[in-house]
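User: quick one, fold this
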Amino acid sequence: MNVLFPFGHGLSYTSFAYQDFKLSRESMSDTDTVTVSCVVKNMGTCAGKEAVQLYVGVPDSDARRPVRELKGFEKIYLEPGEEKEVSFVLDGRAFAYYEPKIHDWFVESKTALIEIGASSRDIRLSGSVTIQSAQELPLHVTLSTTIGELMRIRKGREFVAKLMAGMGMGAAAETTTEGKEDAMGAGGEKMRRQMMFEMPLSALSAYGVMPLEALKGLVESLNE
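Assistant:
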């Protein structure tokens, strides 16, 4: 809901412009760091102070997380017309959340949104960085596990890639069907993928994609 005073809100006798947003890298591992910077300029006729705030969010996180989390701030003083560069260094911990399954902090292999603003509701600049985590959350696979859930583990991702290729839903299939009318209409390919990701593994046997015994063998191998 709308609020009168959002987190980080402050008043001033002058105004500030944010520009020249930069990320030192577009992708990183959870052991790397990324430097985020921007230039802030005093656009008014009075000297003033501004608290430049850095937020991080993971829009498609598998966990329940805030839309954005404060990961740094710097208060700067600027004379009229003066500008300064502000920079922050983020490591893997800045993108982590506490995961009860492993009793530790965990970084997801996701694309994180990095924002700079004057408050949590006054975001001036933004960019994104793709993070590759060295950790995987434990997943006990059963016939009720969905195909989408398998994407959380390496063995599962390898199986899903082969499955999609066999069903004509891989990158190669997209190029061969380009220009042809889709029976499901616009976005049909995306809809089929989403439907498949929500299916339990047992559906592969029910639809004749894999025999039940072969499916049980797959479950055992994924749990090794």
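User: anything notable?
Assistant: The longest helix spans residues 154-166.
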